Recover the amino acids of this structure.
């Protein structure tokens, strides 16, 4: 069997040779752990750019949304700002600066697994507290939780319909490279009834990791009070099809070609997250397109105000707003889901 030269692909080749094909979730988890652990992937010099890096307006409007809810909830204390996967802390910087104008100065908590990104976050927020997951976040005081482009990087399981029924989709080695194939274990009982008779070749994705986080966040909101915004690209109704993709140097690449060297993501199933959050007692505000939410939050007025203060930036501000809200850019594909504690006020934009 031809072996790759080195890196994570070689590790996978040896593992598969020794124990057999691995799940898509295993492949994605190991790949992204290596990828995020070794680099800052953001910006023009990296592999992709997220909304907070496009314009300060994105973070500012999130901060205003949180401050508005906190004020209408009666200014509860203590209060914790919790961000999952905060990147360079750009969103936190802009959001908390906007919230501060209204008296909201929460304790800052970052859930981050990347040492490289945590170092950048410490430079921006030396007084923050870091966590590997939500379990160690304080259980006293209300939570203001934000997750922007975090859930899409969590591993997904894929099931594929074969002539013999549903099977888990696996990753194998064909002698020259990694390939997708169907496993042997029947998985028909794991498939929702509406998809049981899907055509041969159909693929169903689930993310147990995302489901677990949504459930924990909802339980925390129910017990502690607070609100959450989950922002990502995804769909708000159940659907079939593989959404696994890889980005490297701002371009799409084969998802199996560069394990550990490209950003692997999959679309977020917002419909499933909403059901999970409500089952755990959180108040579900809705899921709307990012463009509609930002427009409802007043991004046009904010862009005009910034342009008046810096006329030379007017065109750049218009371009940024279009990129964040345009249907052909991030406005439709990206969704915003809002959650609050029971009896908290409803948030704007939903």
């Amino acid at each position: 069997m031809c072996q790759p030269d080195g890196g994570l692909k070689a590790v996978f080749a040896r593992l598969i040779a020794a124990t057999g094909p691995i799940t898509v979730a295993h492949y994605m988890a190991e790949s992204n752990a290596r990828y995020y652990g070794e680099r800052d992937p953001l910006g023009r010099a990296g592999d992709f750019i997220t909304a907070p890096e496009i314009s300060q307006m994105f973070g500012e409007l999130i901060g205003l949304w949180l401050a508005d809810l906190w004020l209408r909830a009666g200014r509860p204390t203590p209060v914790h700002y919790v961000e999952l996967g905060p990147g360079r802390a750009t969103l936190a910087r802009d959001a908390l600066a906007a919230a501060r104008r209204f008296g909201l100065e929460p304790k800052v908590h970052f859930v981050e697994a990347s040492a490289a990104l945590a170092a950048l976050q410490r430079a921006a927020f030396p007084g923050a507290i870091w966590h590997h997951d939500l379990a160690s976040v304080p259980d006293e005081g209300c939570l203001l939780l934000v997750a922007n482009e975090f859930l899409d990087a969590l591993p997904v399981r894929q099931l594929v319909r074969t002539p013999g029924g549903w099977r888990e989709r696996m990753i194998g080695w064909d002698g020259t490279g990694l390939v997708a194939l169907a496993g042997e274990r029947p998985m028909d009982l794991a498939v929702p009834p509406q998809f049981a008779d899907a055509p041969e070749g159909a693929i169903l994705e689930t993310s147990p990791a995302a489901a677990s986080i949504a459930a924990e966040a909802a339980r925390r909101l129910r017990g502690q009070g607070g609100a959450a915004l989950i922002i990502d690209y995804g769909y708000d109704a159940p659907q079939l099809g593989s959404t696994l993709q890889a980005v490297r140097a701002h371009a799409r690449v084969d998802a199996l070609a560069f394990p550990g060297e490209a950003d692997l993501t999959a679309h977020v199933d917002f419909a499933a997250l909403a059901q999970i959050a409500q089952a755990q007692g959180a108040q579900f505000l809705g899921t709307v397109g990012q463009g509609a939410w930002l427009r409802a939050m007043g991004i046009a007025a904010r862009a005009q105000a910034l342009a008046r203060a810096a006329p030379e930036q007017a065109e750049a501000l218009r371009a940024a707003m279009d990129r964040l809200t345009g249907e052909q850019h991030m406005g439709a594909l990206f969704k915003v889901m809002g959650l609050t504690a029971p009896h908290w006020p409803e948030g704007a934009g939903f």
